[in-house]
Hints:
The structure holds 2 protein chains of 2 kinds. By secondary structure, chain A is an all-alpha fold.
Amino acid sequence: MKHNKWFKISVVEILIGIAVNLLAFTGLVKDPGVLTGAGSGIMAVGVAQLLKAARMEANPELKKRIETASKDERYAFISMKAKEAAFAIYLMIAAVLCLAWMLMGNREAGTLAGMSICLLVLLYAVLFRILARKY
Amino acid sequence: MKNRLEEIRKQRGIRQEELAEAMGVSRQTISSLENGRYNPSVILAIKLARYFGMNVEEIFLYEEAQDEA
């Protein structure tokens, strides 16, 4: 089997997942549950990508279709639109949750939701300035 | 933006799959272009025009009143 780029990336992801899981079992961390979850998640993504890479190697037609799709300008446009919508929807949901939590007296959660809004808006402003210089 | 892509493609007896492969895009992109659901980038518009040996304006018909998002 010829090892393509996705095959190599997925192997690296699986190895990172295993390393994170091993770290959780060493007892060095107080809350290993978070590490186990993250490690398993990374491993799952790696395995899924490995299966995809294997299918691509076995089926050149599928490989060609996936490669075309990854370069397709309409897919890139749709992806950008989806991210734009997800960003706007997240801000609205976080704002509603922030207000609801504050009114219910859960100040900690409300502050977190409010801070996530501030962070996203700040990131947007910074990235806008950087990209405005580039384009 | 309206276009004559489907008409020109059919005149030349080219299938959507063939055109998509020549342009390096998916067949769905050609279909969306033909239905007017998606407007191409300048690069794709020029590639299509060159492929058919025509000017961009002969394929894509822009009217001042139809500025869209």
